[in-house]
Write a structure and sequence with these properties.
The complex is a heterodimer. In chain A, helix 2 packs across helix 3. In chain A, strands 16-13-12-11-14-21-22 form a 7-stranded antiparallel sheet. Chain A is an alpha+beta fold. Chain A is about 25% helix and about 35% strand. In chain B, about 75% of the residues lie in helices and about 0% in strands. In chain B, helix 3 runs parallel beside helix 9 and helix 11 runs antiparallel to helix 14. Chain B is globular, with a radius of gyration of 24 Å. In chain B, about 35% of the residues are buried. The chains are: A alpha+beta, B mainly alpha. At the A-B interface, strand 6 and helix 4 of A face helix 10 and helix 11 of B.
Amino acid sequence: MSITIDRIKKSFGKFQALNDVSLDIPEGKLTALLGPSGSGKTTLLRIIAGLESSDSGRVLFGGDDVSNLHVRDRNIGFVFQHYALFKHLTVAQNIAFGLESLPRRSRPSKQEINARVAKLLEMIQLPQLADRYPAQLSGGQKQRVALARALATKPRILLLDEPFGALDAKVRKDLRRWLRALHDEFHFTSIFVTHDQEEALELSDQVVVMSQGKVEQVNSPTGLYARPESRFVFDFLGHVNVLSGVVKGQSLVQGNARIALPGVVNNQEAQLYLRSHEVQLAKAPVAHARLPLRIEAISLIGSEVRIELAPEGWESNESWEVGMSHGEFARHNPTRGELWYAIPAVGHLFAGDSAQPETVDWHNTAHASAANM
Amino acid sequence: MSPEQHRVGDQPWVRRSLIGLAVSLTVILLVIPVVVIFTEALSAGWSTFSDNILDEYSLHAIGLTLLVALLTVPLNLVFGTALAWAVTRFRFPGRKLLITLIDIPFAVSPVVAGLLYLLLYGRNGWLGGWLSSHDVQLMFAWPGIVMVTVFVTCPFVARELIPLMQQQGSEEEEAGVVLGASGWRIFRKITLPNIKWALIYGVVLTNARAVGEFGAVSVVSGNVRGQTNTLPLHVELLYQDYNVAGAFAAASLLAAIAILTLIAKAIVEWRQSRIEHPAPKTGGA
């Protein structure tokens, strides 16, 4: 069942939590609402569920306006951040709660309910814990019980509020994969809220980036990463290296730093955004870029060596980060305190007041220079 | 002296004298009076004791006291639960003020409360004139006694529930409503089991106070023997009649109720601590 959000507004006192949000959630897809805290993502999820009312605007499920439908009658599954399991009921009783709450004429018989609970316990791989109380479960087990409880009445929409936020890293990874597999098997329309970019990009079919009560960008994970449409999305999706300066003589210049930008209007301010994998390091500057940097720190753990650098003779708000393969690292052996030059391959330029970036590609030249390193 | 004994106040003589002081104060101020009540009540023998208890006026006082408790406890149970629900589950202007107002019966002397009711509902009071012209007598009758007792005891249940319900939040209830449960089912299956022990604790305290209330009741009751005399008032009347054995016999009943209440409270607290710290079950994870 598809979900349509139509010009939703919501404020709490003077705080504008959602400012004219419109959105289409495709049927059968897993959509992530991604944003920092205070961006309105949880409020939006609660309005879709009916746990919160909007000041104006409509929510439609499969084309039907449900704005005035009570949460009880929306037939959605909702998974709370802190599980919200009924602590005085056993695992099995928790899972059966939704089925037992159905009106008498549509309620299955006791045997059917028991059979369905047993099946759900199989699905979450916890049949041996049916008679335990929530206080006796680990965080990951609680979250799986919460999911089974939400799915018991076979809702066509599943909403999850920071579903893995309270779990440790290892359990979180396992549960993510498990949720993805579950979703692929049952094909309900799911929306989950998260502030974790990695989680959103790994798990979802579609990512909705939110900031200050507004939708910044909607795209598939790959599309979002390849083409961030605003500075906010850029900053939010992991570390980014920034050179801000003025365009002079077909180059972006600031202090000692200079990058060739053919075809850009002169004498305007501009910012160039470079991701850590879009930059390489060399001992000498190349024709299209001169970005002197001094190595501040080297982090060896991970599939790639991460090198942190400070600008030399120019300025940047945050330190720069460049990734390097372990093989390359062993060959060139960069050490702390040395002066290196950043060689950009691809960059994203925000010129003047434009909110949308323009992609700049120096690929051919960059490869040539990296080989000379 | 070994190094680990060097904490402040951890010398043996400090410990011993503090424990000794606490124990002797408890004995002098609490245990001896209670023992005296029972020994005095029984000093003239069992038959005098039972005569005093089974005396017509004593029996009426016991009956009236039980009636007051029987009406007060359910009233305040419903009132306290509704109030706690309102201030913890909804946000509305004046909510903080309401939480403060709940404590008025604790802050005001019971005698003042009794006087207030007398001024309002008495024959010459604001509402009393209208009431008496309609042949309704509240003051100097059992309804008045119930009214002031309800006033004096109304904070107990709410006071027990509010911090607990605040701490528990409303996520479980939200989960229930998302799962399609009706309001009544949510209250019965989710809210009530979560607040059950606090509720029982509030009832125990309400009952103890309802049975023992003296000040407010004495103002509005009129102390008519066999009509508006509750057990605490009866104790005072007997004492003023120089019937010391009778006074102590009635007092021993009140003391017995108090001790039963304490035992009930201890059981409830023990149950609650077992729920909050359940013994972990062993078995596969």
